[in-house]
Amino acid sequence: MSKYSRYHTPSDFVIPKTMQALVAFGKGFENLSIKEVPVPEIGPHQLLARVDAAGVCTSILKLIDQGENHTFLNGWDMKRWPIILGDEGSVTLVKVGSGLQDRYEPGQRFAIQPAVDTDPINHRERYADVESMHKCAVGYTLGGHLAEYIVVQEEVLKADCMLPLPEDDMAYFAVSMAEPISCIVSAQDRNYHIYKEGPHGRRIPKLGLLGGGVAVVIGAGAMGRIHAELALRFSPKVLIISDLEQERLDRITATIGEKAKAKECKLICVTPDKLEEVVKAESRGRGADDIILAVGINAVQQKALELLATGGVANLFGGLPKGKHILQMDALKVHYQEIKFVGSSGGEPSDMTATLEAIARGDIDSGNYVAAVGSLDNAIDVLKMIKETRIDGKAILYPHIKQTPLQMVDHWDQSKEIEFLEQRLGV
Fold first, then answer.
1. Fold equal for 10-164+365-425 and 184-341
2. Is the dihedral of CA 200, 336, 190, 230 positive or negative?
3. Given phi > 0 = left and psi -120 to 50 = alpha, else beta, which region is 139?
4. CATH class of 10-164+365-425
5. pLDDT at 7
6. Do 141 and 123 meet the contact criterion of CB atoms below 8 Å apart?
7. For residue 182, which phi and psi values (nearest 5 degrees)?
8. What's the burial of 160, exposed, middle or buried (CB within 10 Å: 0-12/13-18/19+)?
9. Which residues contact 185 (CB under 8 A, 6 or more apart)?
10. Cβ-count burial of 153 within 10 angstroms (0-12 exposed, 13-18 middle, 19+ buried)?
């Protein structure tokens, strides 16, 4: 029996007529509101799911800023057709359309990959240029997770973005964390190195960081810290983390220090003024085999490129703002030292599946990156905190609990989640 069965079982689902949701009526914070809205009716090829937990994603700020000009909205009139936000979450099916009852049943749990790689199927007339739309997104024109219930539309199913869990008893928050973590799984797969068995062996490319090499992560915000923990999957000999804030570096040592030691990886956390010296010393002058730039500052990225070893890879994970996005490339190093530059933007269903499996195996402790928990009514305040950089990590909101002040946490786990829910659901 699931640890969560006390909250709901397929036989006792009672679907209300209305629900709370974070709704956007246009661009700007003034057009955001927690509203009581009808629980959507579903069509024969749609699903209705209860949102058990939802993350508040930084990318929502771009939507708030751009409104209908956002790529995923493509002219969608938000005043006329308001949208429910939220691209990260853990869901349980509560109702299955008549045309899908041979494939799904109430009580099944899923994660949803929000970047849906297919043309719009529903409401095509609402887009300014629907012929240019080859991708749509959950939390944009497809209903989002920052609500008590979410409709899983035909687009999501067509693109195979409904992902079953490797373990049915996974914590709600951990499933919700799979989406942001999957972006890093995707990014690290972009690194590759060439292997040869002897002088006459064929060159064989292998995805990921160099095993036994020197890896560097620059930037120890939440995403940089996730990069650091996931880098251990590749067993680098040395893992160097650099950040201006000593508190962040100390947090990395506390959270993954023992894991690094168990993998016989030397973990070193340094401030930027010492980075070059440490890289040279630990690599015996060769440089870094992998550099992950988890900070979007032009000068920092430019300087870091000088630290690459022969055959090294620079992963430009932290996006640079327009107008400051041009980096100078040393073509001689590309030619003679075979350095490489890679990048990515988000993940896809395979990355989410790999991430869910990594969480279930314990390759990463997703609770290390939860900074706050609360109820749905905290959503707008959390977005403002993100915009003002007053939160360093993910806020997890539970849409079905009563209004609860946002609670800051250093770490979150399943036992804490269960106690939190029991207290607020009266179970």
1. no
2. positive
3. left
4. alpha beta
5. 73
6. yes
7. -65, -30
8. middle
9. 230, 347, 351, 354, 355, 358
10. buried
Please work out, in degrees rounded to the nearest 5, the angle formed at the alpha carbon of residue 170 by the alpha carbons of 169 and 173: 135
Domain boundaries, the chain: 10-164+365-425, 184-341
Question: Please, what's the b/e burial string for 283-304 (b: 16 or more CB within 10 A of its CB; e: otherwise)?
Answer: beebbbbbbbbbbbeeebbeeb
Contact in structure between 145 and 397 (CB atoms under 8 Å): no
- Retrieve residue 7's tokens: 């909250």
Comparing CA positions, the residue from 407, 426, 427 lying closest to residue 173 is: 407
Who contacts 410 (Cβ-Cβ below 8 Å, separation ≥6)?
A: none
Contacts of 17 (CB under 8 A, 6+ apart): 38, 39
**Which residue carries 């810290």 as its tokens?**
225
pLDDT of residue 4: 81
Indicate whether this model's pTM tops 0.85.
yes
Residues in Cβ contact with 425 at an 8 Å cutoff, skipping those fewer than 6 apart: 7, 400, 401
Locate 163 and state its tokens: 């992902």
Using DSSP bridges, classify how beta strands 394-398 and 370-375 pair: parallel, antiparallel or unpaired: parallel
Dist. CA 244–CA 82, nearest whole Å? 41
- As a 3-state breakdown, the chain gives helix, strand, coil percent values, each rounded to 5, of 35, 25, 40
What pLDDT digit, counting tens, does each position of 352-397 carry? 999 999 999 999 999 999 999 999 999 999 999 999 999 999 999 9
Cα-only R_g, the chain: 22
Looking at this protein, which amino acid is placed at residue 140? Y
Find where tokens 């497809």 sit. 142
Which of helix, strand or coil describes residue 205?
A: strand
Cβ-based neighbours of 78, under 8 Å, separated by 6 or more: 24, 25, 26, 27, 31, 67, 68
- In DSSP notation, 349-408 reads HHHHHHHHHHHHHTSS-GGGGEEEEEEGGGHHHHHHHHHTT---SEEEEETTSPP---EE
With 0-12 / 13-18 / 19 or more C-beta atoms within 10 angstroms meaning exposed / middle / buried, residue 127 is buried
Q: Which CATH class is domain 184-341?
A: alpha beta
Query: What stretches in the chain show pLDDT beneath 50?
Result: none
Q: What is the pLDDT of residue 70?
A: 96
